[in-house]
Amino acid sequence: MSAAVGCKDTASGGESSASKSPKPAASSKKPDSGSVKDDGKESAKESPDSSKKPGGKGSAGALTCDQLRNAELQNSSMRLPDAPEGTVVAFTDGRWEGDGVVIELQPQCGIGDMTGDPAADAVAAIKVTTGGTGKFYGLVTWRNDAGTPVPAAAVSLGDRTPVVSIDISAPERQATVVYLTRGDSEPTAVVTLRRTAVYRVTEPAMVELHHSDAPYTP
């Protein structure tokens, strides 16, 4: 699973040599910095800078679900299904409104690697309302770009299909999403199925690998 990162100075000051009987000259010299002490332990060295880790983007900390509340949602390289085309969309406190469309971030969110680099990404549910009775739910994957969420892929789940949960399996780079839906011949006003679907990112889309359904009664 996913959804999501000092060195104590051991050098001893020692006792003043002036309070003790004189010692041979060879032993009165202090060891050079970084040399091995007589007890076999290394003297303290500066701890390595934890920010200098291999892996480029992998050095960034994991994204958080809270970061998405003010993240970009659609740009020139990634279009969000059900959103106005050709418009840059970015959340302000989890909401965007324009051209008669309202997009709201939903609480369901998972953190983990979805794009193939060591940095943990984010997948979250959104709801798009277009002014009529339709409420279109979808999923968005944000790539972790040095700690900044950048929209990378998305998929629409359809009209009135609320998301229940999102879990990310990092080794497989897959998101398991549970949401409510219905059979193809049933009206959109009802939900009769609890669907568990597995998605993988193929930018700029999230592709469903497989799903299973169970009966659902509100």
* Low confidence ranges: 1-58
Structural class: mainly beta
State the major sheet: 5 strands, antiparallel
How widely separated are the two ends? 29 Å
The residue-averaged pLDDT reads 81
Topology order in helix (H) and strand (E) letters: HEEEEEEEEEEE
The gyration radius over C-alpha positions equals 27 Å
Shape: globular
Describe this structure in words.
The chain has 218 residues and is mostly beta strands. It has one helix at residues 25-28; strands at 72-74, 89-90, 95-98, 101-112, 121-129, 135-145, 148-159, 163-169, 174-181, 193-202, 205-215. It is globular, with a radius of gyration of 27 Å. The two termini are 29 Å apart.
In short:
By secondary structure, this protein is mostly beta strands.
SSE diagram, text form:
Layout: H1 25-28, E1 72-74, E2 89-90, E3 95-98, E4 101-112, E5 121-129, E6 135-145, E7 148-159, E8 163-169, E9 174-181, E10 193-202, E11 205-215
List keywords for this structure.
four-stranded antiparallel β-sheet; 218 residues; 2% helix; disordered N terminus; mainly beta
